Amino acid sequence: MARVMNAVLRYASDISFKVQGLKYLKSCKGSAILVANHQSSFDGFGFSQFWLYVHPCSFVAKNTMAYFGPMGFAVTLCGVVFINRANSKKAMAQLDYQYKQLYDRNSKLLIFPEGTRNFTGTILPFKKGAFCVAIKHQVPIIPIVYSSQIEYFNVRKRFWYNKDMIIRVLPAIPTTGLTLSDVEQLSNSVRELMMKTFEQISK
């Protein structure tokens, strides 16, 4: 599937993916929270590059996406976890409940902790949901960093320039022994690590 998606993307936009650090996904056999930076819809194509190594896996999306016609229907069939971002307390409860169902099936969950698409050439401050869930269930966090798209995507014209996008998977970060009082520090340290990686692979 990854080869097919890569071929389609290369044909349609002359973009291809180079995935680094796949060994960190292959070695994680149990449940985990995957956190990735989010820039555009093309991040979904990137996810297809390592789908086989994280399956079964779901990802979090805002609940309004369920009503996006065929796309909403498709992501619903893929087992997307929809949350109501307008109500942070309700969103956290939904996220925790849904992850409990996935945890019981030894599954993984992909979350974009910035909470929205970010096309500024940096990584926005993280929301805390992913880290709360990881600590509560004592499962590792695996950071996934996409290189910057800002230099080869014209937002106004929706035009892509020839480019290889790098996706780097970082080593799993354990949460064993951490408590909810550690959420802030964990969130900040993971973001700092991802920012350094983002700057490295975006050069």
TrEMBL record:
GO terms for molecular function: 1-acylglycerol-3-phosphate O-acyltransferase activity. CDD domains: LPLAT_AGPAT-like. It catalyses: a 1-acyl-sn-glycero-3-phosphate + an acyl-CoA = a 1,2-diacyl-sn-glycero-3-phosphate + CoA. GO terms for biological process: phosphatidic acid biosynthetic process. One of its GO terms (cellular component) is endoplasmic reticulum. It comes from the Eukaryota. Keywords: Acyltransferase, Lipid biosynthesis, Lipid metabolism, Membrane, Phospholipid biosynthesis, Phospholipid metabolism, Transferase, Transmembrane, Transmembrane helix. The keyword ATP-binding does not apply. Pathway: Phospholipid metabolism; CDP-diacylglycerol biosynthesis; CDP-diacylglycerol from sn-glycerol 3-phosphate: step 2/3. Pfam families: Acyltransferase (PF01553). SUPFAM superfamilies: Glycerol-3-phosphate (1)-acyltransferase (SSF69593). Residues 32-149 form the Phospholipid/glycerol acyltransferase domain. The chain crosses the membrane at residues 65-83. The keyword Kinase does not apply. Coiled coil: none annotated. The HXXXXD motif is essential for acyltransferase activity and may constitute the binding site for the phosphate moiety of the glycerol-3-phosphate. Belongs to the 1-acyl-sn-glycerol-3-phosphate acyltransferase family. This is 1-acyl-sn-glycerol-3-phosphate acyltransferase. It comes from Strigamia maritima (European centipede).
